[in-house]
Model the fold of this input.
Amino acid sequence: MEVPERVHLIPVGYENDRIVLPAVRLRADRVVLLRYEDETDHPSYAETVRERFDAEGIDHETVPCNIFDFYDSIGTVAELATRFADHEVYVNLASGSKVTAIGGMIACMATGATPYYVRAKRYAAETDGDVAEGIREITELPTYPMQSPEPQHVAVMDYLDREDGARKRDLIDFGKQADLPFIAERDAANRKSEYRLLDSHVLGPLAENGYVDLEEVGRSTRVSLTESGRNTLRAFRYLIDED
Done:
């Protein structure tokens, strides 16, 4: 039987000690570093912290993440938290950008991962150039359950994104092809029933959340993604991505 590991998800910005020391103190078994790819102007401590984790004997891997993009931060953290759902997942909210901290907190609420904040001993004005040095305390932050979109809703948004909008009839056909619950798990007596199922289980909730627009075009209804829908899709596309 596999023994659960303590897995720490840690954005890599311009921190050093606040990345490594909390993981060591909290006895992390594995670390996943979220690294911003474009570091031309402001190199991070990515290589340094990897070397320090090697010296501590802590397994680590690095994945790409735009720590300055809200929705990429949510999506990356949530996808990793889901990947390690059988383990104890912790998320460091102090080591990336403010955007990543907010996105990471939302991802924790959606997945049940544990967020924590690290207070440094010394900050920039008191150091020799680092953003922060040492750690004074580690605080586990409270979270409140947040309902993430249903996978079938994400699948429909993904289809709308790929097709640049679609008719309701197209969405019903897609639902049948993709075996989505709104149509696959219910008996529709006729075509009118299929439309009702689509409206009540998919388009109604998506429209209520502001994720889709519905426009009457002749005798058909055209469905398209809103900007909010596109952003939500970016954050939660991992729910439908195949391994």
